[in-house]
Amino acid sequence: AVKLERNIQPLSDDYIKFIRFAHWKMEKVERGVIGIITNNSFIDGLIHRGMRQELMKDFDEIYIFNLHGNSRIGEKCPDGTKDENVFDIMQGVCISFFIKKSSAENKQAKVFYQDLHGLRQVKYAELFGKTIKTVKWKKLKPDSNYHFFALKDFSSNGNYLNCFKINEIFNLYTSGIKTHHDNELIAFKPFKTNNQLYNYRPFDIRFIEYDLKKVVRHRNSIMQNMLKDNLGLCITRQVNREPFHHSFISDCLTDICFVSIRTKESAYIFSLYTYNENKIENGNGNDYLFKEDGKRDNFTKDFRHYIKSKYLEHFSPNQILGYIYAVLHSPTYRTKYIEFLKIDFPRIPFTEDENKFQELSIIGEKLINAHLMKEIPAKITCPLLGGSNNFKVESVNFDKGKVWFNNERYFDNVPEDVWNFYIGGYQVLEKWFKERKKHEITLTPDDFSHFRAMVNVINFTIKTMGIINELTKEWI
User: Cβ neighbours of residue 196 under 8 Å, at least 6 residues apart?
Assistant: First the structure.
């Protein structure tokens, strides 16, 4: 399973090494028990599936007592109340018992699981009063693909696993750029050399000095396609927090944290088109849906054949991207398949109704143009009010439609649902202001216009997602 992963860095975590060391010691004895308290990411992390599979082969029984408490993702109890860590750390933890009863090989361990949410003192009281025999364990049936050591509800499976995954639709893709030197290489103003537009955060376009000798992870083999006329679908491979809102669009170079606050949930970019610099996929070049003047679609051969055979109409790459973008913004889709969206790239259901495909495609393309700020559906006015000439971002506060960025100045008439709107790991408007506070930015008239544009684009997004939901909720 490790060989299938591009990034195995998370497996070098010290706690993984400790578990592996204990596992190695147990391989040398006939029977025994490992009891260990660790980070809980291995119980359902995608990268850890091979680890879980190997543990199941060598132990007879595995018990996971998940103590939760992950403040990195704002984890809460199932009833919405506060969930605290049992230690003074941010990462959630679990207690694990790995029991070996005999030296027989190739076992298939029985896996048992239980949750413990709540305040720290509540968890302490529960733990002091329990033994492995008195915990009300739930027996799991780990699936053959991911071998999860946690409860997962896949009852909404339907036909989802038979759908094309994003990385089966697009041929070439990469994670976003990671400069390792953001302060020197990313700026609000253009550089004199190697200057390129840079999608740093949602609706926060900056400039990057795209010198391949300076940018550590420049991803240029794929990113070079985004230096020309192109669109890039930005998606995370896995998410830790609900709900899913980790899809966005780019038309220039893109940061690894463009739609996610954590590099572990890094943004991948799937360009719609590729250019001659990239190696042409083996096979008949005439299979492309678009090929002209060195520019061609970036779809896989299998997907091209699928889409051609499914619909009578010849849909362009932009129309197909519009459809995909609409599906990814369907609230029903995001809710129904959340367990799958947590663990791997999204899969895209394609409707049997060609007219519905076209309708969703048109809506998705409008949403793309709005998110690129090429078409601003202006309906909300947000007057800049206050009594001074101080336009420096010194604080960020929202109160009854007012967005204060210092003690004297604020934008009025901002809807609460727009203020609370998330793209990926970011509360978009709040994040935009916080970034400018961090860099001690004084807002300009262009910034005022940009903020009002963001408000209207987000408002349009919320309403459009409702329309998409009506078109998808019965069949998706």
Answer: 207, 208, 210, 227, 252, 253
Q: Is the dihedral of CA 450, 452, 453, 457 positive or negative?
A: positive
Structure tokens at 255: 């940061």
Q: Identify residue 342 by its one-letter amino acid code.
A: K
Whole-prediction pTM: 0.80
d(CA 123, CA 126): 5
Backbone angles phi, psi at 284, to 5 degrees: -75, 115
CA pseudo-torsion sign 20, 24, 30, 33: negative
Tens digit of each residue's pLDDT (9 = 90 or more) over 349-406:
999 999 999 999 999 999 999 999 999 988 899 999 998 899 999 999 999 999 999 9
Residue 91: how many other CB atoms lie within 10 Å? 17
Neighbours of 259 (CB within 10 A): 31
What is the per-residue pLDDT across 204-246, written as a single tens digit (0 to 9) for each?
999 999 999 999 999 999 999 999 999 999 999 888 777 899 9
* 8 A C-beta contact, residue 33 and residue 39: no
Tell me if 278 sits within 8 A of 225, measured CB to CB.
yes
